[in-house]
Amino acid sequence: MTPTIFIDGEAGTTGLQIRERLAGRRDVTLLSLDNSRRKDPAARAEMLNRADISILCLPDEASRQAVAMVDNPDARLIDASIAYRTDSDWVYGMAEYGPDQAQRIAAAKRVTNPGCYACSAVAMVRPLVMAGIVPADFPVTLNAVSGYSGGGRKLIETFEDVASPKYTKSTFYLYALGLEHKHTEEIRVHGGLDRRPLFVPSVGRFAQGMIVSLPLQLWALPGAPGAADVHGALADHYAPASMVTLAALAETAAMDTLDPEALNGSDEMRLHVFANQDHGQVVVAALLDNLGKGASGQAVQNMNLMCGFEQTTGLKR
Fold it and tell me: Rounded to an integer, what distance in angstroms lies between the CA atom of residue 84 and that of residue 172?
């Protein structure tokens, strides 16, 4: 029998994209509630306990409530909210996180899907910390820009619905300027950092796409590593990776711009190391679709592993 999959919250942005990725597949069976029953707790509880794997695409508190509904010891969960991202009882759902992470996800009952900003930041920071290039107590700064779909329905309405009281004509703005963005602690924990990074997110007037960048003053790092050392540490970490790729230094050096929408429609993340050797500076940048590798594509990759499939099944590059 094919594994049964239930998407709790399938009408939301992430849920819709997961369903789209699974709709044509014959190796899984999608379970669904009709519109009249999607908010019925009893119906949802029945489905959560019936499905082999449920993917929770819900607000944080609603995810916690859904998890509490599960009493079937064989029911497995992938949670796309922030509720469990630093919970040690849940497996961090980023297969490229470490050499055994794909196996840990495959065996897990509870998997927490990373945030879009967080998986990008962790993809850059963690390998450099593990390689000893960036000390765990280093004052890390991260800058980011995302398409507005990353903020869910309310932010989509802010940019698209002229009738919304929060509608904006802005083309770009910084936000979370209280420096308490919900992904910051996730980045610290899974990036291997002792101190909170300074994280400065922004949103642009485009629906999807994302760049997260990590600027580094190489002369301020122990041993004053070069750009090749930074690139080499990332190359060593991602040699066996499936959906994270690293551009060659020569390819990146030839680039004048980096477009946040360049990987839209893809489930890949691409890393670049931009360098100025004369000044001892690099900027590591992660490019991805915030709805792909940053959300729905990541969830499907985790589901594939948990089902025993090749992890890239149904994903796009």
Answer: 30
Contact at 8 Å (CB) between 230 and 174?
no
Higher pLDDT, 179 or 239: 179
Q: Quick one: fold of 116-290? A: Dihydrodipicolinate Reductase; domain 2 (3.30.360)
What pLDDT digit, counting tens, does each position of 209-262 carry?
999 999 999 999 999 999 999 999 999 999 877 899 999 999 999 999 999 999
Domain positions in the chain are 4-113+295-307, 116-290
Task: Summarize the confidence of residues 122-150 as an average pLDDT.
Answer: 96
Sequence-distant (6+) residues with CB within 8 A of 276 are 282
Question: Helix (H, G, I), strand (E, B), or coil: what is residue 154?
Answer: helix
Q: How many CB atoms lie within 10 A of CB 307?
A: 18
Contacts 24+ apart (CB under 8 A), 220-228: 221/133, 221/134, 221/135, 221/138, 222/132, 222/135, 224/280, 225/133, 226/277, 227/273, 227/275, 227/277, 227/282
CATH architecture type of domain 4-113+295-307: 3-Layer(aba) Sandwich (3.40)
Q: 29: how many CB neighbours lie within 10 A of its CB?
A: 15
Mean pLDDT score of the chain, rounded to an integer? 95
Residue 123 CA to residue 284 CA, distance in Å, equals 10
Instruction: Give pTM, 2 decimals.
Output: 0.95
Catalytic residue among 57, 116, 119, 307: 116
Is residue 57 annotated as a catalytic residue, yes or no? no
